[in-house]
Amino acid sequence: MHIAEITLDINGEARSVTVRNADTLLYVIRDKLGLTGAKPGCLNGDCGACTIDVDGNPMKACLMLAVEAEGATITTVEGLKYTSLQAQFVDKFAFQCGYCTPGFIMNAQALINKNPHATDMVITEWLESNICRCTGYKEIEEAVKTALAVARTALQEQLK
Amino acid sequence: MIPYDFAYHRISTAEEAVKLHQSLREQGRRPYYYAGGTELITLGRLSEVYADAVIDIKGIAECQTLQLEHNQLFMGAALPLAKIQESRFFPLLGQTISEIADQTARNKITLGGNLCGHIYYREAVLPLLIADSEAVIEGKSGRRRAPLNSIFDGRPQLEEGELLVQLITQSDYLELPYYTVKKRRQWDIGYPLITVAALKKDGKIRLAISGVCPFPFRSERLEEILNNHRHSPETRIEQAVQLLPQPISGDVEGSPEYRIFVLKNTLLDALQALEGEAHAHS
Amino acid sequence: MTIGKSIYRKEALEKVTGTAKYTDDYTSPSMLHAKLVVSTHAHAIIKAIDTSEALKAPGVRAIVTGQPDFPLTGEEIHDRPPIAYGKVRHHGEAVAIVVADTPHMAKKAAELVKVDYEPLPVVNSPTDAISASAPLVHEQLAKYEKIQHVYPEPNTNIADRVKIRKGHIEQGWQESEVTVEARFSFGPSDHAAMETRCATAEIRPDGHILISSSSQAPYMIKKLMSEYFKLDAGKIIVTTPLVGGGYGGKVPTQLEIIAYLASKAVGGRPVKVFNEREEDMITSPVHIGLEATVKLGCRRDGVLKAAKLVYLFDSGAYSDKGATITRAAAASCTGPYHIDNVWCDSLCVYTNHPYATAYRGFSHSEVLFAFERTMDMLAEKLGMDPLELREKNAILPGHTTPTQADLNASNVGNLPECIRKLKELMKWDEGRRMEVNGRKVIAKGIACIWKTSTIDTKASSGVILMYNPDGSLNLMSGLVEIGTGSKTVLAQILADKMKMDISQIYVRMEVDTQTMPEHWKTVASRGTYMAGRAVLQAADDLIRQLKDIASRILVCSPDELEVGFGKVYVRDDPTIYSKIPDIAYGHKYPNGNAIGGQIMAKGNYMFRHMTHLDRDTGAGKPGPEWTVGAQGIELEFDTRDFTYKLLKAYAVIDIGKVLNYKAALGQVIGAMSMGLGFAGRESFIFDEKGKVLNPQLRTYVTPRYGEHPDYIVEFVETPHIDAPYGARGIGEHGLLGMPAALANALSTAAGLHLNQLPLVPELIWKAKTGGTER
Questions:
Q1: Looking at the complex, does the CB of residue C765 fall below 8 Å from at least one CB of chain B?
Q2: CA-CA to B168 of 20 to 30 Å: which in A122, C216, C710, C765?
Q3: Strand partners, C584
Q4: Max Cα-Cα span within chain A
């Protein structure tokens, strides 16, 4: 009764997996599904390195039980199709060791999807959820703002 | 990683939750109402919180309510803080909430969880206390609706097995002039040294504080003194800090003496903001 | 060509798609998991450990506790048992390893291990440590094995004392018309790399030991494991995939030993040890603390005449790199100035704090905080502009360092130029303290920096190059990719040298000590210099081999040939050439005869002419070159609340030569951010019993997005002619001046002397008011 058989909708695939009820979603996606892009930086909801997308919102996978995630639509960094945000991270040198990168990208991608018109204040509010220890955040700021601008342009194109 | 195991129950009504809780207790189990669950996960991994049966209340529709109806704002206890913040129904609450943890975490932390949790700051309660909000509580003997101020003493004083279902705030409180601010040890992230939420109703300032003591509080005596216009704001504040509940917190965020210093300045800002302008946003 | 350009990192795509693999990302069903039981006391006798309940827990395969026959470990002094034995010396120290089938089983069982402690008095600061009545952290200090050049003082808590005696200090005071003296202090803090440390170990039936670790020093793991456990070095194979940040914290060998002991206890099965954040912060080594006394003397015109310095480094429970850090601090004890008379005692002391290891800057930001604060105090006393005082005393070619090493136009950068640029960038002449309104002021502060790298005089770096059939090259270096992008810079150097497209160079990111040549340790901003020289040598070897084969095909002497653009061609007539793909794997003549084979080349590099420091005077040449720079901070200070906001952070650094512009910029800005975190907020907070109260990222808060100032970085390029393209070390330098510059800016803003870290508003409030408020 402490074990559950669950099916997760993750990166467009239905994945069935046996979990402990007490297993976090982070543990299950990394150790059972092999999706190691989300990183175990603190297991305490403090660093954001494990951020994934759950139903359109960024979520710290270490703060969620796998059993809770049944029925939700989950996207991990492995599910992104080289978005312009990822390209901007490369171009702006927005990472060094790369450990925080998937979390930052998943958070910022959710912001871009949800609110391409995000103000500086909103960008800060969202991005302060993640820790980067290598950069001075300036590079991340440049990458995210450029990707937001790209998204806004794409939106305008659609409206034409 | 939580080292221990537990059973996991999803339920869809408050009655069901309370019943399940009761029957689990009768079996000698240790049930836990689980909404955002961030505390069970983070304190559980340190073995500071224990449960062997988790009752997930997120499926209870009324715990997810967020609507303004008959001049009352209904907020479900299982609403993520981010949703309340986004809704803009209650700007003071939204702004106080926006400083709790971080944006991503607020997609998970719930209103009820923040109020009833172990981490003592419980900052979401501050606006609710000063807005005379009510709590809807489901218990063994049915449902009750109680003024939050009457059941809040450091935390909501719930009976064993009672479930906080909703918070209700009268709409005439939602747009009152307010002031709220969170002061930290340094810069923009971290637990509070002091969080203050204040609003002005009928010409009087109401105010609740977290961080200064190891529990959040609203004190009517404190409000009386702060509203005593015969004295200068500075004098009122000096008098007010003499009446603070004890103990004053001293921890990694700051010493008790420094907290008082920060509190005085914060109170001064709150008084100036609310006694000056009609609408003051910190 | 590629030099100087912002070439994307070779592993960039892996990192943005989440496919980049780090140590913990590798796992297998056969792998067991270890969890540490850690000390709840800072100093206590272990009276008993009861593992009986834990052993009965489901999935538990073994429990290892400290044993008298486990070796003592440590790079300089063998003072640390891999698992505490007899007593614990710091909060968080490992006392037992529980090995189980899954991480949660191990964790659950670890909670069932009962340790009976008898608390001992605690050494809670360096001052405590050297007081006559201090309890001893190491009673057996005299008996420990050690390297030759470290001098522990038995029956004290002093692990090492390094002396600098340059000139005549008494004469210096006589020539001084103005003196200042001040004391400085800050406690230990943390590296807080986003990837917590992780290691796996497996012992094969044939005696091979396979270790994988998130390490900056895989070759040192191999060497030390062989030494500690009397193992054949050739049987130890260490692999290191990408590393999620190091900053010095992943230099020591620690979890690898634990993983090895754990594997041994379960018959050699693979075992993983993964630090949760709390362990990573206090069980694994930390950033060193310091107490310093600085006394400076100068003439009325500001010319420095004497410096007397006492540095007490808080190495915590074990010396690890503490002694080496203490030595590096002595070698650069003054800051980048010409001073004839220098007296310094730099001490590494034991306390009951978590033990310290290397941290980005290796003692320099720490010492510079004390020294550069004192320079500002001296300027104030002289009534002189602090930048002018520094310009006046700036170290130059022809001067000597505190260790009496000679400086020349190559081995030291151009500090006056850095100061001039900084002055301009910061609009220094417009003022250092400007009122914004009744409450807020804008203030500026500066600090000058220098650093050499006092690494092992016998450290070497090797590179192997191998052709692929299409003429592309594989580059293998033992340098670990910890985020600095050094391996991409190596590819740039190779591409430039071979005149080929960088996309045709494949850099092996994962290090494997069995098949890849050693790079001593990925530390000390030395990757590009050492491995870069090795690349250049290997490329020469490659070119020689290419020319040798081509000369036979083209029927000419090898020295008439050039290599480039995928060809070996006759210098005088490039229409006569061999394509590299036709010779890289040997060459086949039309009749079927063949010559040569796959071309492989090698190169290595070791510093020349470096020496140990003389025990009595400190004289010697500790490093190959000195990078210099000048940094500044501009902030807005609230004079009522004592809070502040960082507005701008400046750095002008003489980088010698920019090899990859954005990568270099990233190194400098990232280091500045780390320095501001260290200076502004990061510190372990200890209770009176030596317990760390904030071993989590929610209470130990690192800089966050939005708190960052605008970063303004410029480079000066004075080549160091020994280094590839003249490039100087740059990985650490952005950090070095930040604590001092921030403290100087805040001291100016608040109108007092702030000589402690971290610079939280409460510290300023205390300094200003005495800390009473009720």
A1: yes
A2: A122
A3: C586
A4: 56
